Amino acid sequence: MALLNGPDFLLAFVNSAYLELVGLENPNQIVGKTVKEAFPEIEKQGFLQLLNQVYETGEPFLATDRELRLQRDGEENTVYVTFSYQAVRNVRGEVEGILAHTVDVTEQVMARNLLEARVKERTGELQEAEDKLRVLTGRLLQAQDEERRRLARDLHDSAGQIFVALKMNLFALEQQLQANDPELDKVAISSVELVDDLSKQLRTMSHLLHPPLLDEAGLASALRWYVEGFGERSGIRVELDLDPKLPRLSQETETAIFRIVQESLTNIHRHSGRQSTTIRVEYSLSKITVQIRDAGRGIAQFNSKKKMPARVGVGVQGMQERVRQLQGTFDIHSGQAGTTVVVTFPTQ
User: Fold this and answer.
1) What percent of the chain has pLDDT over 90?
2) Does residue 176 fall inside a structural domain?
3) Distance between CA atoms of 240 and 253, rounded to whole angstroms?
């Protein structure tokens, strides 16, 4: 603490803690001097202006964690202080001086700065790790899509050719048995029918893994084909509303939208309990928006604030990551009126 008298702020009294703060041992070294004479280095730091403000207005002033540069033994030392200036008045209520109360908080400030630096460093490390994970996830999704393409092609070409050859052999065998062994002929006919059914299932599986239409004709054709087949397989009526202005998009965007629609319809079939759903795709020069909506029973334990199920499954995580990879937005709204998935991708 220090008592400053008059408009020149003459140091009339300082206690031992004040002396320790300014690096002195004897009060006579500064008592009797003005603040400007004792500490000329503080004039450019704004402290004298604050003293003048308190002296002129009589209003107290408080500052926390303020940097203070002092000359000690010919060297400049930086400390941090929390201080208050309070007017001292005479019996007439006039301001005659200022009581300065100063606390050295250098250790606390330095500790906090060190902690903030460590937090910042740690945050940077976490961000770097998150960026690497995002890149890795993107590569995994890309590898998954490529593997689906390869499997779909192999099933369609190699396995498909085998089924064609098998059917031809069974058909030839059936022709021989038709006249010679009617009972075995029935088995041969049944086997041909089984091969036909298996071939159809194989072709469907191949197209579900990666529909050729997605690469050849684009998203609109692939969605029409998939929605039609999904309706036949599940018994769920799907209303598909495609923007007539929808152009061909990048392969990554078209694949992402197709997979999101595919996963959403699978979830509706498993959990919704409804026999109808609506898919709307809207296009503009700046974005493409996909909305998948059902009027089912909603998602159990849905967190409306986070807009996520309490337990996020692999399918939802996959959709989220595909959207994140393309800098889009992903939202789910769920309640008693049903569930709506809204995905937006930038088109520029």
Assistant:
1) 39
2) yes
3) 18
